[in-house]
Amino acid sequence: MLKLGILGLGEGRSTISAALNSKKWQLKTMCDLSEEACKQRAKEFDFHHYTTSYQEMLNDAEIDAVAIYTPDKLHAEHVKMALKHGKHVICTKPFIDDLADAKELLELSKQSGKKVFVGQSSRFFEPAKRQRKDFEAGLIGDLITIEAQYHADHRWFLEKPWALESSFKWLYGGLSHPVDFIRWYLPNIEEVMGYGMLSENGKKGGLKNEDTMHFIFKASDGRIARVSGAYTGPTQPAQRDSGMSTILRGTEGASQADYHELRYAVTDKTGEEKIIIWGDSTLKYYFRFEGQSHHAGEYQNYLEYFADSIEQNFTAYPDMQEGIGTVALLQAMDKSLKTGTPIKIKDILDTYGLVL
Ligand SMILES: NC(=O)c1ccc[n+]([C@@H]2O[C@H](COP(=O)([O-])OP(=O)(O)OC[C@H]3O[C@@H](n4cnc5c(N)ncnc54)[C@H](O)[C@@H]3O)[C@@H](O)[C@H]2O)c1
Question: Which keywords does UniProt give here (predicted)?
Fold first, then answer.
């Protein structure tokens, strides 16, 4: 069994549950700057090996991999430290929030020979997995276009102090999920443009950056896609709409994966229409805590996939390169919001001397 250290015990809670329930991982240490957070998780999981010092966790030679769930702006530094200590790394999304760190990270991962996996959790959720499987099996033919959205009433999130800092952007924190879906199916996005605004609710809550955004994308082969996000207002009833949804329109069929609703619909190439709604046991596997606030099942799926990649020596995706590609796209989207013009991804990559 591989040994795991977990850094950041807010969302890291899901990973604690995932590791404790997995036959492929042994949780060795959990770490948070806040001793209170450590104590809370120790009590919750009856697991008492914790430290408030990341350095101490990294010094433990027995730990094979570190899973990072600190605020976005700290990811680059925490990934660098882990690689310098010879650990494999799982880093939650968004991988980094500034491409200025990308080159050094890519070089460091090459030098270290360690694997880096980006925790784009939504790919590992049941409806998204099924949609991908059907797509790869050719059920909807070739992809024509993809539409993805992530809309949520995240006013509760504004209680976290870092949510109100000018460095926090829903563009990275929220849209990284649907944008990852776009890149999963259309990796070679060449150009993007979009509009965004800060809603009245967002202003009132103290947010500094856009909380409502619509973007369109063009891939190098001419195919197009779109994404939208809105984060500070009520959403539709779940029977009518989904907070997070991905629609694939193909040459011979179409499919839609709805996230929290655990719902998937497909019209396949034979013309058959199918709707799958997963039941309670699946729901319990994915959402183990109150409400649907955490994502333990998705994390267990990706932790186990990453364990296999270490033991069988293959690359688990999204890897660092793919994670950086998504950040480059997010950064191009950010620039498009500022300039009101279409932005080429290559220009962003060139600015940082990156060839992916
Ligand atoms: N579906 C997903 O994949 C998903 C969902 C939610 C959050 N996230 C990501 O997880 C990350 C954390 O989000 P959160 O909601 O848990 O935030 P949070 O503020 O609740 O938790 C962050 C924790 O990190 C700790 N921390 C901060 N600096 C530290 C340091 N230097 N060393 C050790 N611990 C430190 C804080 O004390 C805090 O407990 C973000 O990057 C977020 O985007 C991913």
Answer: Oxidoreductase
* Tens-digit pLDDT profile for residues 51-103: 999 999 999 999 999 999 999 889 999 999 999 999 999 999 989 988 999 99
Same domain, 239 and 143: yes
Angle between helices 320-339 and 102-112 (to 10 degrees): 180
For residues 184 and 123, is the Cβ–Cβ distance under 8 A?
yes
Q: Give me the residues paired with residue 189 across strands.
A: 219
Here the CATH number for the domain that contains residue 90 is: 3.40.50.720
Q: Ligand 1: which of 92, 97, 98 to mutate, judged by most atoms within 8 Å of the beta carbon?
A: 92
Please give the residue range of the domain that contains residue 150.
Answer: 123-286+325-339
What separation in Å is there between the alpha carbon of 30 and the centre of ligand 1? 13
Task: Measure 77 CA to ligand 1 centroid, in angstroms.
Answer: 14
Residue 319 lies in a domain: no
290 or 115, higher pLDDT: 115
99/146 same-domain check: no
Residue 354 lies in a domain: no
Both 142 and 107 in one domain: the answer is no
Helix-helix angle 176-185:320-339, to 10 degrees: 120
Phi-psi region of 323 (alpha: psi -120 to 50; beta: other; left: phi over 0): alpha
Provide CB contacts within 8 A for 104, sequence distance 6+. 80
Residue 345 inside a domain? The answer is no
> What's the 98 CA to ligand 1 centre distance in angstroms?
17
Query: Per the domain annotation, does 303 fall within a domain?
Result: no
**Is the distance from the beta carbon of residue 34 to the nearest atom of ligand 1 less than 6 Å?**
yes
